[in-house]
Amino acid sequence: MKAFIPKKNGETKSFPVWFDKNSIELIHSKKKGHAKHKSTNSLADYKSFRELRNRLSKIAADIRSDPQSLWRYINSMKSSGKSPRPMFLGNRSSEDNGEIASLFAEFFSEVFTSDHIVSPNFNIPEVLFC
């Protein structure tokens, strides 16, 4: 049964979904810059850290001054509920809804067959069926 159950990789997101890759990298760079400044106590490392901190502060200030821009960005990232085009099964692909449905049916008919269905045994006494 374990062969047919998909496994999750256990990856957890530590940032909200609206953070793009550049923002996450900037935050990581700032943290590394802070750690480097603390370990070396160098003026050059402090200036580098300060620049990264100021860039993040400016982004936060821009969001506070114009929150609609953040919400426009978040709403633009929401999925439309449509399936991605084209859909693939093996080496075949399709953009037609009917053919896509057939690809799904074929995929699930191969994965889930009646051989894998186990009927439960409910030992119900016959007196209940009077």
Structure overview:
With 130 residues, the protein is mainly alpha-helical. Among the domains are: 21-77, no CATH class; 85-115, no CATH class. Helix content is 53%, strand content 5%. It is built from 4 helices and 2 strands; from the N terminus they run H-H-H-E-E-H. A two-stranded antiparallel sheet has the order 1-2. Helix 1 (21-40) packs antiparallel against helix 2 (43-65) and helix 2 packs across helix 3 (67-77). The model has no long low-confidence stretch (mean pLDDT 81).
The average pLDDT is: 81
Side-by-side strand order of the widest sheet: 1-2
Task: Provide the structure class.
Answer: mainly alpha
Beta strands, count: 2
Question: Stretches where pLDDT falls below 50 for ≥5 residues?
Answer: none
List the secondary-structure elements in sequence, H or E.
HHHEEH
- State the helix count: 4
Biggest sheet layout: 2 strands, antiparallel
Radius of gyration: 27 Å
Tell me the helix content.
40-55%
For the termini, the CA-CA separation is 38 Å
Any idea what the shape is? elongated
**Proportion of residues in extended strands:** under 5%
Quick tags:
two-stranded antiparallel sheet, 5% strand, 4 helices, mainly alpha
Quick rundown:
With 130 residues, the protein is mainly α. The protein has helices at 21-40, 43-65, 67-77, 97-111; strands spanning 87-89, 92-94. Among the domains are: 21-77, no CATH class; 85-115, no CATH class.
